[in-house]
Specification:
It comes from Priestia koreensis. Pfam families: Thia_YuaJ. InterPro entries: Thia_Transptr_ThiT. Helix content is about 70%, strand content about 0%. With about 190 residues, the protein is mostly helical. The protein has a single domain (about 5-185), classed as Arp2/3 complex 21 kDa subunit ARPC3 (Orthogonal Bundle). Strands 1-2 form a two-stranded antiparallel sheet. Strand 1 (about 30) and strand 2 (about 35) form a beta hairpin. It is globular, with a radius of gyration of 17 Å. The two termini are about 15 Å apart.
């Protein structure tokens, strides 16, 4: 497997830290269980630039930083691993569309570029929120309103969070990447 260059490693670390800062400063809390944020944008940019590997490492690093800043003790070891380590690393699946985004960015094919961006953001968002959904059923279901199953509670709260964050990230990246293709095109 090809190793990442020093440039990639530095960019991954910086963009993971930017995601952490965005998440801490700008997050729209709709309720205690629903939060919409565009903090995934830097990690998704890395995934479009360096592929699944780079995006996964950036997401993993962001998750670890998040755990250090805001430790979670629900479910002891398993819940934080699921919701911070695995879930955040899964944002890297956005990179499945890295080649397509890079190709269309080089060609200047805006409609195909935006379609690739949206598809990649959707894959990364769903991959992350599947883990939040599972953790919601297992660990957070006890907070469901009376008469509502843990499954439905997690589906609604994580579904709204995922859809809101997906739409926000897709819009932002669809505005940024076409106007500044160098963000996803690499030299090293």
């Amino acid at each position: 497997m090809k190793q990442l260059s020093l440039v990639a490693v530095i960019e991954i670390a910086i963009f993971a830290a930017i995601s952490l800062i965005l998440d801490l400063l700008i997050s729209f809390k709709i309720s205690s269980a629903i939060s919409i944020s565009f903090a995934m944008v830097p990690v998704m940019l890395i995934a479009f630039r360096w592929g699944v590997k780079g995006g996964t490492i950036a997401g993993l690093l962001w998750g670890i930083l998040q755990l250090i800043i805001e430790p979670s003790t629900i479910g002891f070891f398993i819940q934080p691993v699921m919701e911070y380590i695995i879930a955040f690393a899964c944002i890297g699946f956005t990179g499945l569309y890295a080649r397509s985004v890079q190709k269309h960015a080089k060609e200047g094919n805006r409609p195909k570029l935006i379609a690739s961006i949206v598809a990649g953001v959707f894959i990364g968002s769903v991959a992350r929120y599947i883990w939040h959904f599972i953790a919601g059923v297992i660990f957070w279901g006890k907070y469901a309103p009376k008469g509502q199953s843990a499954f439905v509670y997690s589906l609604i709260s994580n579904g709204v969070s995922m859809l809101g964050s997906f739409v926000l990230c897709a819009i932002i990246l669809s505005l940024i990447i076409p106007t500044s293709a160098r963000l996803v095109l690499r030299r090293a």
